[in-house]
Protein backbone atom coordinates (compact mmCIF):
# COMPACT_ATOMS: atom_id res chain seq x y z
CA UNK A 1 0.00 0.00 0.00
CA UNK A 2 1.42 3.39 -0.94
CA UNK A 3 1.83 6.12 1.62
CA UNK A 4 -0.78 8.22 -0.25
CA UNK A 5 -3.41 5.53 0.08
CA UNK A 6 -2.58 5.04 3.75
CA UNK A 7 -2.90 8.77 4.23
CA UNK A 8 -6.28 8.82 2.45
CA UNK A 9 -7.50 5.89 4.56
CA UNK A 10 -6.46 7.45 7.85
CA UNK A 11 -8.03 10.81 6.97
CA UNK A 12 -11.21 9.03 5.82
CA UNK A 13 -11.39 7.17 9.12
CA UNK A 14 -11.67 10.44 11.04
CA UNK A 15 -14.32 12.00 8.79
CA UNK A 16 -18.04 12.01 9.60
CA UNK A 17 -20.23 13.37 6.81
CA UNK A 18 -23.87 13.82 7.77
CA UNK A 19 -27.04 15.85 7.30
CA UNK A 20 -29.78 16.88 9.69
CA UNK A 21 -33.22 15.91 8.43
CA UNK A 22 -36.26 17.52 9.97
CA UNK A 23 -39.54 19.23 9.42
CA UNK A 24 -39.34 23.04 9.32
CA UNK A 25 -39.31 24.61 12.79
CA UNK A 26 -38.14 21.46 14.55
CA UNK A 27 -34.93 23.36 15.31
CA UNK A 28 -32.45 22.43 12.58
CA UNK A 29 -30.79 25.84 12.43
CA UNK A 30 -30.65 26.01 16.22
CA UNK A 31 -29.13 22.54 16.44
CA UNK A 32 -26.61 23.32 13.71
CA UNK A 33 -25.47 26.37 15.62
CA UNK A 34 -25.28 24.40 18.85
CA UNK A 35 -23.26 21.61 17.24
CA UNK A 36 -20.82 24.04 15.69
CA UNK A 37 -20.54 25.85 19.02
CA UNK A 38 -19.68 22.67 20.90
CA UNK A 39 -17.23 21.68 18.22
CA UNK A 40 -15.69 25.13 18.47
CA UNK A 41 -16.03 25.88 14.79
CA UNK A 42 -17.43 29.28 15.66
CA UNK A 43 -17.24 31.44 18.73
CA UNK A 44 -20.85 32.38 19.18
CA UNK A 45 -24.03 30.55 18.29
CA UNK A 46 -26.10 32.50 15.82
CA UNK A 47 -23.22 33.33 13.57
CA UNK A 48 -23.74 30.31 11.39
CA UNK A 49 -27.21 30.03 10.11
CA UNK A 50 -29.16 32.85 11.58
CA UNK A 51 -32.58 33.74 10.36
CA UNK A 52 -34.21 37.13 10.52
CA UNK A 53 -33.36 38.78 13.79
CA UNK A 54 -30.37 36.59 14.44
CA UNK A 55 -26.80 37.34 13.65
CA UNK A 56 -25.45 36.50 10.25
CA UNK A 57 -27.26 34.99 7.33
CA UNK A 58 -24.39 33.03 5.91
CA UNK A 59 -26.44 30.39 4.20
CA UNK A 60 -29.07 32.66 2.72
CA UNK A 61 -27.82 33.78 -0.63
CA UNK A 62 -30.64 34.05 -3.07
CA UNK A 63 -32.96 37.01 -3.18
CA UNK A 64 -35.87 34.63 -2.84
CA UNK A 65 -34.34 33.18 0.26
CA UNK A 66 -33.92 36.56 1.82
CA UNK A 67 -37.48 37.61 1.24
CA UNK A 68 -38.93 34.34 2.45
CA UNK A 69 -36.39 33.80 5.16
CA UNK A 70 -35.90 30.21 4.17
CA UNK A 71 -32.89 28.30 3.09
CA UNK A 72 -33.34 27.24 -0.52
CA UNK A 73 -29.88 26.00 -1.13
CA UNK A 74 -27.56 23.68 0.64
CA UNK A 75 -24.25 24.64 2.08
CA UNK A 76 -21.63 22.74 3.99
CA UNK A 77 -20.27 23.34 7.45
CA UNK A 78 -17.04 21.74 8.55
CA UNK A 79 -15.86 21.51 12.13
CA UNK A 80 -13.63 19.45 14.37
CA UNK A 81 -14.53 17.43 17.44
CA UNK A 82 -12.36 15.03 19.41
CA UNK A 83 -9.90 14.55 16.60
CA UNK A 84 -12.60 13.98 13.99
CA UNK A 85 -13.58 16.26 11.12
CA UNK A 86 -17.35 16.63 10.82
CA UNK A 87 -18.93 17.71 7.56
CA UNK A 88 -22.50 18.85 8.07
CA UNK A 89 -24.35 19.22 4.80
CA UNK A 90 -27.33 21.52 5.06
CA UNK A 91 -30.61 20.32 3.61
CA UNK A 92 -33.17 22.97 2.68
CA UNK A 93 -35.59 23.31 5.54
CA UNK A 94 -38.87 24.20 3.97
CA UNK A 95 -42.00 22.10 3.81
CA UNK A 96 -42.22 22.81 0.14
CA UNK A 97 -38.97 21.28 -0.88
CA UNK A 98 -37.23 20.04 -3.95
CA UNK A 99 -35.06 17.36 -5.42
CA UNK A 100 -31.98 19.15 -4.11
CA UNK A 101 -32.69 17.87 -0.63
CA UNK A 102 -32.63 14.32 -1.84
CA UNK A 103 -29.40 14.78 -3.71
CA UNK A 104 -27.68 16.04 -0.59
CA UNK A 105 -28.57 12.74 1.01
CA UNK A 106 -26.63 10.97 -1.74
CA UNK A 107 -23.50 12.63 -0.38
CA UNK A 108 -23.78 11.77 3.33
CA UNK A 109 -22.94 8.67 5.35
CA UNK A 110 -25.37 9.30 8.18
CA UNK A 111 -28.38 11.46 9.06
CA UNK A 112 -29.53 13.05 12.28
CA UNK A 113 -33.33 12.99 12.41
CA UNK A 114 -34.55 15.91 14.46
CA UNK A 115 -37.98 15.60 16.04
CA UNK A 116 -40.00 18.24 17.85
CA UNK A 117 -40.97 16.76 21.24
CA UNK A 118 -44.49 18.16 21.02
CA UNK A 119 -45.18 17.31 17.39
CA UNK A 120 -43.55 13.92 16.90
CA UNK A 121 -43.04 12.71 13.35
CA UNK A 122 -44.03 15.28 10.76
CA UNK A 123 -44.52 15.19 7.02
CA UNK A 124 -41.10 16.24 5.85
CA UNK A 125 -39.34 14.09 8.44
CA UNK A 126 -41.21 11.13 7.01
CA UNK A 127 -40.28 11.96 3.42
CA UNK A 128 -36.62 12.47 4.21
CA UNK A 129 -36.53 9.38 6.35
CA UNK A 130 -37.88 7.35 3.42
CA UNK A 131 -35.01 8.58 1.29
CA UNK A 132 -32.51 7.59 4.00
CA UNK A 133 -34.05 4.15 4.18
CA UNK A 134 -33.99 3.82 0.40
CA UNK A 135 -30.31 4.76 0.31
CA UNK A 136 -29.38 2.70 3.36
CA UNK A 137 -28.29 5.74 5.38
CA UNK A 138 -28.16 5.05 9.14
CA UNK A 139 -30.21 7.50 11.21
CA UNK A 140 -29.52 8.96 14.67
CA UNK A 141 -32.61 10.51 16.31
CA UNK A 142 -32.59 13.68 18.41
CA UNK A 143 -35.84 14.60 20.16
CA UNK A 144 -35.64 18.37 20.52
CA UNK A 145 -37.42 21.01 22.62
CA UNK A 146 -37.59 18.87 25.77
CA UNK A 147 -37.59 22.17 27.69
CA UNK A 148 -41.19 22.68 26.55
CA UNK A 149 -44.26 20.59 27.32
CA UNK A 150 -44.60 17.80 24.81
CA UNK A 151 -45.33 14.12 24.39
CA UNK A 152 -44.28 11.20 26.53
CA UNK A 153 -40.82 9.87 25.71
CA UNK A 154 -42.00 6.26 25.43
CA UNK A 155 -44.88 7.31 23.21
CA UNK A 156 -42.45 9.01 20.81
CA UNK A 157 -40.32 5.87 20.68
CA UNK A 158 -43.42 3.82 19.90
CA UNK A 159 -44.27 6.16 17.07
CA UNK A 160 -40.81 5.80 15.52
CA UNK A 161 -40.93 2.04 15.81
CA UNK A 162 -44.44 1.73 14.44
CA UNK A 163 -44.14 4.15 11.55
CA UNK A 164 -40.53 3.68 10.49
CA UNK A 165 -40.08 0.02 11.41
CA UNK A 166 -36.91 1.12 13.14
CA UNK A 167 -36.15 0.06 16.69
CA UNK A 168 -35.29 3.09 18.82
CA UNK A 169 -32.38 2.47 21.18
CA UNK A 170 -32.06 5.39 23.64
CA UNK A 171 -28.55 6.61 24.36
CA UNK A 172 -29.56 9.75 26.27
CA UNK A 173 -32.75 9.49 28.34
CA UNK A 174 -34.59 12.42 29.92
CA UNK A 175 -35.18 12.73 33.65
CA UNK A 176 -38.45 14.64 33.86
CA UNK A 177 -41.25 14.95 31.35
CA UNK A 178 -41.06 17.35 28.44
CA UNK A 179 -41.19 20.83 29.93
CA UNK A 180 -39.87 19.60 33.29
CA UNK A 181 -36.41 18.48 32.33
CA UNK A 182 -34.20 17.69 35.35
CA UNK A 183 -31.31 16.23 33.43
CA UNK A 184 -30.26 13.44 31.12
CA UNK A 185 -29.02 9.93 31.74
CA UNK A 186 -26.19 8.87 29.44
CA UNK A 187 -27.22 5.26 29.04
CA UNK A 188 -23.60 4.23 28.55
CA UNK A 189 -22.79 5.70 31.99
CA UNK A 190 -25.69 4.67 34.21
CA UNK A 191 -25.81 5.51 37.88
CA UNK A 192 -25.57 9.23 37.35
CA UNK A 193 -27.52 12.09 35.87
CA UNK A 194 -26.21 14.99 33.85
CA UNK A 195 -27.71 18.23 35.10
CA UNK A 196 -27.57 21.38 33.00
CA UNK A 197 -27.20 24.97 33.97
CA UNK A 198 -29.10 26.96 31.41
CA UNK A 199 -27.39 29.41 29.16
CA UNK A 200 -30.07 31.79 27.98
CA UNK A 201 -30.32 32.15 24.23
CA UNK A 202 -27.92 29.26 23.79
CA UNK A 203 -25.04 31.56 22.99
CA UNK A 204 -22.65 29.56 25.15
CA UNK A 205 -22.08 25.91 25.85
CA UNK A 206 -24.35 24.53 28.52
CA UNK A 207 -22.61 23.68 31.77
CA UNK A 208 -22.98 19.98 32.41
CA UNK A 209 -22.77 18.68 35.96
CA UNK A 210 -22.75 14.95 36.71
CA UNK A 211 -24.97 14.16 39.70
CA UNK A 212 -24.78 10.79 41.47
CA UNK A 213 -27.77 8.42 41.50
CA UNK A 214 -28.21 8.95 45.25
CA UNK A 215 -28.31 12.69 44.92
CA UNK A 216 -30.64 12.54 41.91
CA UNK A 217 -32.95 10.23 43.87
CA UNK A 218 -32.93 12.69 46.75
CA UNK A 219 -33.37 15.87 44.75
CA UNK A 220 -35.44 14.72 41.80
CA UNK A 221 -37.08 11.70 43.43
CA UNK A 222 -40.13 10.91 41.34
CA UNK A 223 -38.64 12.00 38.02
CA UNK A 224 -35.42 10.08 38.61
CA UNK A 225 -37.34 6.97 39.67
CA UNK A 226 -39.54 7.14 36.59
CA UNK A 227 -36.58 7.58 34.23
CA UNK A 228 -34.69 4.62 35.76
CA UNK A 229 -37.81 2.47 35.56
CA UNK A 230 -38.40 3.40 31.93
CA UNK A 231 -34.81 2.58 31.04
CA UNK A 232 -35.11 -0.81 32.76
CA UNK A 233 -38.23 -1.53 30.75
CA UNK A 234 -36.51 -0.54 27.53
CA UNK A 235 -33.55 -2.78 28.30
CA UNK A 236 -35.83 -5.73 28.92
CA UNK A 237 -37.45 -4.94 25.59
CA UNK A 238 -34.04 -5.12 23.89
CA UNK A 239 -33.89 -1.41 23.10
CA UNK A 240 -30.12 -1.42 23.45
CA UNK A 241 -27.73 0.13 20.98
CA UNK A 242 -26.12 -2.36 18.65
CA UNK A 243 -23.68 -0.87 16.15
CA UNK A 244 -24.27 -3.50 13.49
CA UNK A 245 -28.05 -3.16 13.65
CA UNK A 246 -27.74 0.63 13.53
CA UNK A 247 -25.50 0.56 10.43
CA UNK A 248 -27.94 -1.87 8.81
CA UNK A 249 -30.75 0.68 9.41
CA UNK A 250 -32.65 -1.64 11.73
CA UNK A 251 -32.23 0.56 14.82
CA UNK A 252 -31.79 4.25 15.60
CA UNK A 253 -29.90 5.57 18.64
CA UNK A 254 -32.12 8.17 20.33
CA UNK A 255 -31.14 11.35 22.17
CA UNK A 256 -33.27 13.88 24.01
CA UNK A 257 -32.42 17.50 24.60
CA UNK A 258 -33.03 21.15 23.88
CA UNK A 259 -30.89 22.60 21.14
CA UNK A 260 -31.78 26.13 22.19
CA UNK A 261 -30.10 25.68 25.59
CA UNK A 262 -27.44 23.33 24.24
CA UNK A 263 -28.83 20.53 26.37
CA UNK A 264 -27.93 17.08 25.11
CA UNK A 265 -25.93 18.52 22.24
CA UNK A 266 -22.55 17.32 23.45
CA UNK A 267 -23.89 13.78 23.81
CA UNK A 268 -25.19 13.95 20.26
CA UNK A 269 -21.89 15.29 18.96
CA UNK A 270 -20.02 12.50 20.75
CA UNK A 271 -22.39 10.00 19.19
CA UNK A 272 -21.66 11.34 15.73
CA UNK A 273 -17.97 10.75 16.37
CA UNK A 274 -18.45 7.38 18.10
CA UNK A 275 -21.34 5.86 16.16
CA UNK A 276 -21.73 7.51 12.74
CA UNK A 277 -19.85 5.59 10.07
CA UNK A 278 -16.79 7.11 8.38
CA UNK A 279 -16.72 7.21 4.57
CA UNK A 280 -16.54 3.68 3.24
CA UNK A 281 -16.11 1.91 -0.09
CA UNK A 282 -18.59 3.15 -2.64
CA UNK A 283 -20.46 1.06 -5.18
CA UNK A 284 -19.57 1.69 -8.80
CA UNK A 285 -21.39 1.01 -12.05
CA UNK A 286 -20.89 -2.47 -13.34
CA UNK A 287 -20.45 -3.99 -9.89
CA UNK A 288 -17.71 -3.76 -7.30
CA UNK A 289 -16.66 -0.83 -5.13
CA UNK A 290 -14.08 1.97 -5.06
CA UNK A 291 -12.35 1.78 -1.67
CA UNK A 292 -11.54 5.04 0.14
CA UNK A 293 -7.79 4.44 -0.30
CA UNK A 294 -8.08 4.13 -4.10
CA UNK A 295 -6.85 7.10 -6.17
CA UNK A 296 -9.03 10.21 -6.06
CA UNK A 297 -12.68 9.96 -7.08
CA UNK A 298 -15.57 12.32 -6.41
CA UNK A 299 -19.29 12.61 -7.01
CA UNK A 300 -20.99 15.83 -8.10
CA UNK A 301 -24.23 15.87 -6.10
CA UNK A 302 -25.40 19.39 -6.65
CA UNK A 303 -24.92 22.22 -9.09
CA UNK A 304 -25.81 25.72 -8.06
CA UNK A 305 -25.83 28.78 -10.25
CA UNK A 306 -25.61 32.39 -9.17
CA UNK A 307 -24.53 31.84 -5.62
CA UNK A 308 -22.95 35.20 -5.82
CA UNK A 309 -25.19 37.65 -7.71
CA UNK A 310 -22.21 39.92 -8.29
CA UNK A 311 -20.40 37.24 -10.23
CA UNK A 312 -23.14 35.14 -11.77
CA UNK A 313 -21.15 32.02 -11.32
CA UNK A 314 -21.93 28.40 -10.98
CA UNK A 315 -20.68 25.97 -8.39
CA UNK A 316 -20.59 22.21 -8.65
CA UNK A 317 -20.53 20.57 -5.22
CA UNK A 318 -18.47 17.43 -5.20
CA UNK A 319 -18.05 14.92 -2.43
CA UNK A 320 -14.67 13.27 -2.32
CA UNK A 321 -15.31 9.52 -2.32
CA UNK A 322 -11.80 8.12 -2.45
CA UNK A 323 -8.19 9.23 -2.39
CA UNK A 324 -6.87 12.73 -1.91
CA UNK A 325 -8.10 15.79 -3.77
CA UNK A 326 -5.57 18.53 -4.35
CA UNK A 327 -6.53 21.82 -5.91
CA UNK A 328 -4.99 22.20 -9.31
CA UNK A 329 -4.90 18.50 -10.08
CA UNK A 330 -6.31 17.45 -13.41
CA UNK A 331 -8.89 14.73 -13.15
CA UNK A 332 -11.13 12.95 -15.64
CA UNK A 333 -14.84 13.58 -16.03
CA UNK A 334 -16.23 10.07 -16.43
CA UNK A 335 -19.25 11.08 -18.56
CA UNK A 336 -17.18 12.73 -21.29
CA UNK A 337 -13.82 11.08 -20.71
CA UNK A 338 -12.36 14.60 -20.86
CA UNK A 339 -9.78 16.05 -18.51
CA UNK A 340 -11.05 18.54 -15.96
CA UNK A 341 -8.76 21.07 -14.28
CA UNK A 342 -9.60 21.83 -10.65
CA UNK A 343 -8.02 25.24 -10.41
CA UNK A 344 -10.98 26.89 -8.71
CA UNK A 345 -11.75 24.62 -5.81
CA UNK A 346 -13.38 26.13 -2.74
CA UNK A 347 -14.86 25.12 0.49
CA UNK A 348 -18.22 26.81 0.57
CA UNK A 349 -20.45 27.88 3.32
CA UNK A 350 -23.23 30.08 2.03
CA UNK A 351 -21.58 33.11 0.56
CA UNK A 352 -18.35 32.57 2.41
CA UNK A 353 -15.77 30.79 0.39
CA UNK A 354 -12.20 30.00 0.91
CA UNK A 355 -9.78 28.21 -1.33
CA UNK A 356 -9.43 24.57 -0.49
CA UNK A 357 -6.05 23.05 -1.20
CA UNK A 358 -6.62 19.54 -0.09
CA UNK A 359 -9.64 17.41 0.70
CA UNK A 360 -10.17 13.83 1.82
CA UNK A 361 -12.94 11.24 1.51
CA UNK A 362 -16.14 12.62 3.00
CA UNK A 363 -15.20 16.26 2.40
CA UNK A 364 -17.16 18.50 0.07
CA UNK A 365 -15.46 20.76 -2.45
CA UNK A 366 -17.15 23.52 -4.45
CA UNK A 367 -15.84 23.70 -8.00
CA UNK A 368 -16.41 27.20 -9.30
CA UNK A 369 -17.45 27.84 -12.88
CA UNK A 370 -17.28 24.21 -13.71
CA UNK A 371 -19.76 24.62 -16.54
CA UNK A 372 -19.10 21.14 -17.90
CA UNK A 373 -20.10 19.37 -14.70
CA UNK A 374 -23.57 17.91 -14.17
CA UNK A 375 -25.33 16.50 -11.15
CA UNK A 376 -24.39 12.83 -10.86
CA UNK A 377 -21.03 13.24 -12.60
CA UNK A 378 -18.08 11.19 -11.45
CA UNK A 379 -14.59 12.69 -11.44
CA UNK A 380 -11.57 10.49 -10.97
CA UNK A 381 -7.84 10.14 -11.19
CA UNK A 382 -6.08 6.89 -11.95
CA UNK A 383 -8.22 3.88 -12.72
CA UNK A 384 -11.49 4.90 -14.34
CA UNK A 385 -14.66 4.64 -12.34
CA UNK A 386 -18.30 5.67 -12.61
CA UNK A 387 -20.68 5.97 -9.67
CA UNK A 388 -24.30 4.96 -10.23
CA UNK A 389 -26.60 7.75 -11.45
CA UNK A 390 -28.40 9.92 -8.92
CA UNK A 391 -31.91 8.70 -8.34
CA UNK A 392 -34.55 10.75 -10.09
CA UNK A 393 -37.65 11.06 -7.97
CA UNK A 394 -41.23 10.78 -9.08
CA UNK A 395 -42.42 14.30 -9.90
CA UNK A 396 -45.78 15.34 -8.48
CA UNK A 397 -46.17 18.84 -9.92
CA UNK A 398 -46.32 19.73 -13.57
CA UNK A 399 -46.46 23.02 -15.46
CA UNK A 400 -46.13 24.07 -19.10
CA UNK A 401 -43.48 26.75 -19.58
CA UNK A 402 -43.75 29.33 -22.35
CA UNK A 403 -41.65 32.39 -23.12
CA UNK A 404 -43.45 35.65 -22.30
CA UNK A 405 -41.66 37.31 -25.21
CA UNK A 406 -41.64 35.09 -28.28
CA UNK A 407 -38.74 36.99 -29.80
CA UNK A 408 -36.59 35.61 -26.98
CA UNK A 409 -37.27 31.98 -27.75
CA UNK A 410 -33.58 31.23 -28.24
CA UNK A 411 -32.78 32.43 -24.72
CA UNK A 412 -35.82 30.52 -23.49
CA UNK A 413 -34.59 27.25 -24.96
CA UNK A 414 -31.06 27.79 -23.68
CA UNK A 415 -32.31 28.61 -20.18
CA UNK A 416 -34.61 25.61 -19.96
CA UNK A 417 -31.84 23.32 -21.21
CA UNK A 418 -29.48 24.72 -18.59
CA UNK A 419 -31.97 24.29 -15.76
CA UNK A 420 -32.63 20.75 -16.93
CA UNK A 421 -28.92 19.94 -16.88
CA UNK A 422 -28.53 21.39 -13.42
CA UNK A 423 -31.48 19.31 -12.30
CA UNK A 424 -33.47 22.33 -11.09
CA UNK A 425 -36.54 20.67 -12.60
CA UNK A 426 -37.14 17.68 -14.85
CA UNK A 427 -38.02 18.77 -18.40
CA UNK A 428 -40.55 16.73 -20.35
CA UNK A 429 -41.28 17.13 -24.03
CA UNK A 430 -43.63 15.73 -26.62
CA UNK A 431 -44.15 16.22 -30.34
CA UNK A 432 -47.65 17.41 -29.57
CA UNK A 433 -46.48 20.28 -27.39
CA UNK A 434 -43.33 21.26 -29.26
CA UNK A 435 -40.14 22.75 -27.84
CA UNK A 436 -41.63 26.18 -27.16
CA UNK A 437 -43.88 24.61 -24.55
CA UNK A 438 -41.95 22.06 -22.53
CA UNK A 439 -43.57 20.57 -19.44
CA UNK A 440 -41.63 21.13 -16.25
CA UNK A 441 -41.92 18.43 -13.63
CA UNK A 442 -40.99 18.88 -10.00
CA UNK A 443 -41.09 17.07 -6.70
CA UNK A 444 -41.93 20.29 -4.86
CA UNK A 445 -43.66 23.32 -6.43
CA UNK A 446 -40.96 25.65 -5.10
CA UNK A 447 -38.73 24.34 -7.87
CA UNK A 448 -41.00 26.28 -10.27
CA UNK A 449 -40.32 29.52 -8.41
CA UNK A 450 -36.62 28.96 -8.88
CA UNK A 451 -37.25 28.46 -12.62
CA UNK A 452 -39.26 31.68 -12.90
CA UNK A 453 -36.68 33.70 -10.99
CA UNK A 454 -33.72 32.37 -12.92
CA UNK A 455 -35.30 32.48 -16.37
CA UNK A 456 -36.10 36.16 -15.88
CA UNK A 457 -32.95 37.17 -14.04
CA UNK A 458 -30.29 35.04 -15.61
CA UNK A 459 -31.49 34.10 -19.08
CA UNK A 460 -33.47 37.31 -19.81
CA UNK A 461 -36.45 35.27 -20.85
CA UNK A 462 -39.32 35.55 -18.38
CA UNK A 463 -41.63 32.56 -18.50
CA UNK A 464 -45.33 31.97 -18.10
CA UNK A 465 -46.10 28.80 -16.21
CA UNK A 466 -49.42 27.04 -16.64
CA UNK A 467 -50.07 24.37 -14.05
CA UNK A 468 -51.26 21.03 -15.39
CA UNK A 469 -53.79 18.98 -13.43
CA UNK A 470 -51.52 15.94 -13.07
CA UNK A 471 -50.18 14.67 -9.75
CA UNK A 472 -48.86 11.23 -10.58
CA UNK A 473 -46.11 9.99 -12.91
CA UNK A 474 -45.37 6.41 -13.90
CA UNK A 475 -42.69 5.05 -16.22
CA UNK A 476 -44.04 3.47 -19.37
CA UNK A 477 -42.73 2.33 -22.77
CA UNK A 478 -43.36 3.58 -26.30
CA UNK A 479 -46.44 1.38 -26.75
CA UNK A 480 -47.84 2.55 -23.41
CA UNK A 481 -47.13 6.19 -24.26
CA UNK A 482 -48.90 5.89 -27.60
CA UNK A 483 -51.86 4.12 -26.02
CA UNK A 484 -52.24 6.82 -23.38
CA UNK A 485 -52.04 9.67 -25.86
CA UNK A 486 -54.69 7.95 -27.99
CA UNK A 487 -57.03 7.06 -25.17
CA UNK A 488 -60.33 8.96 -25.10
CA UNK A 489 -61.36 7.49 -21.77
CA UNK A 490 -58.37 8.09 -19.52
CA UNK A 491 -57.31 11.54 -18.38
CA UNK A 492 -53.58 11.62 -18.80
CA UNK A 493 -50.71 12.30 -21.11
CA UNK A 494 -47.38 10.71 -22.00
CA UNK A 495 -44.20 12.73 -22.40
CA UNK A 496 -40.49 12.06 -22.74
CA UNK A 497 -38.11 13.16 -19.99
CA UNK A 498 -35.11 14.81 -21.63
CA UNK A 499 -32.66 13.80 -18.90
CA UNK A 500 -32.87 10.04 -19.48
CA UNK A 501 -35.33 9.72 -22.40
CA UNK A 502 -37.75 7.92 -20.08
CA UNK A 503 -41.38 7.83 -21.22
CA UNK A 504 -43.50 9.18 -18.39
CA UNK A 505 -47.24 8.66 -18.17
CA UNK A 506 -48.91 11.47 -16.21
CA UNK A 507 -52.28 11.15 -14.49
CA UNK A 508 -54.38 13.39 -12.26
CA UNK A 509 -54.69 10.58 -9.70
CA UNK A 510 -54.32 6.88 -9.03
CA UNK A 511 -57.86 6.26 -10.15
CA UNK A 512 -57.08 7.43 -13.70
CA UNK A 513 -53.87 5.39 -13.71
CA UNK A 514 -56.01 2.40 -12.71
CA UNK A 515 -58.45 3.01 -15.57
CA UNK A 516 -55.54 3.14 -17.96
CA UNK A 517 -54.27 -0.20 -16.68
CA UNK A 518 -57.73 -1.68 -17.19
CA UNK A 519 -58.09 -0.22 -20.69
CA UNK A 520 -54.61 -1.32 -21.78
CA UNK A 521 -53.69 -4.29 -19.60
CA UNK A 522 -50.52 -4.94 -21.64
CA UNK A 523 -49.12 -1.41 -21.29
CA UNK A 524 -46.15 -1.08 -18.96
CA UNK A 525 -46.71 1.18 -15.97
CA UNK A 526 -43.94 1.21 -13.40
CA UNK A 527 -43.59 3.12 -10.18
CA UNK A 528 -40.82 5.70 -10.08
CA UNK A 529 -38.85 6.23 -6.89
CA UNK A 530 -41.35 8.04 -4.72
CA UNK A 531 -40.27 11.06 -2.78
CA UNK A 532 -42.48 9.79 0.02
P1 LIG B 1 -35.64 25.08 11.63
O1 LIG B 1 -36.75 25.65 10.82
O2 LIG B 1 -35.80 23.59 11.79
O3 LIG B 1 -34.28 25.49 11.21
O4 LIG B 1 -35.89 25.61 13.12
P2 LIG B 1 -35.19 26.77 13.95
O5 LIG B 1 -33.86 26.34 14.44
O6 LIG B 1 -35.29 28.05 13.23
O7 LIG B 1 -36.16 26.76 15.22
C1 LIG B 1 -37.54 27.02 15.11
C2 LIG B 1 -38.05 27.65 16.39
O8 LIG B 1 -37.92 26.72 17.45
C3 LIG B 1 -37.23 28.86 16.78
O9 LIG B 1 -38.11 29.81 17.33
C4 LIG B 1 -36.29 28.33 17.83
O10 LIG B 1 -35.90 29.31 18.76
C5 LIG B 1 -37.14 27.27 18.48
N1 LIG B 1 -36.34 26.19 19.08
C6 LIG B 1 -35.32 25.50 18.52
N2 LIG B 1 -34.82 24.61 19.40
C7 LIG B 1 -35.53 24.73 20.53
C8 LIG B 1 -35.48 24.10 21.80
O11 LIG B 1 -34.67 23.23 22.09
N3 LIG B 1 -36.42 24.51 22.72
C9 LIG B 1 -37.33 25.48 22.46
N4 LIG B 1 -38.17 25.80 23.42
N5 LIG B 1 -37.38 26.11 21.28
C10 LIG B 1 -36.50 25.74 20.33
From TrEMBL:
Pfam families: EF-G_D2 (PF22042), GTP_EFTU (PF00009), RF3_C (PF16658). It comes from the Bacteria. PROSITE patterns: G_TR_1, G_TR_2. InterPro entries: EF-G-like_DII, EFG_III/V, G_TR_CS, P-loop_NTPase, PrfC, RF3_C, RF3_dom_3_sf, RF3_GTP-bd. CDD domains: RF3. GTP binds at residues 90-94. Keywords: Cytoplasm, GTP-binding, Nucleotide-binding, Protein biosynthesis. Belongs to the TRAFAC class translation factor GTPase superfamily. Classic translation factor GTPase family. PrfC subfamily. PANTHER family: PEPTIDE CHAIN RELEASE FACTOR RF3 (PTHR43556:SF2). Increases the formation of ribosomal termination complexes and stimulates activities of RF-1 and RF-2. It binds guanine nucleotides and has strong preference for UGA stop codons. It may interact directly with the ribosome. The stimulation of RF-1 and RF-2 is significantly reduced by GTP and GDP, but not by GMP. This is Peptide chain release factor 3. It comes from Streptomyces cahuitamycinicus. The lineage of its organism: Bacteria, Bacillati, Actinomycetota, Actinomycetes, Kitasatosporales. The gene is prfC.
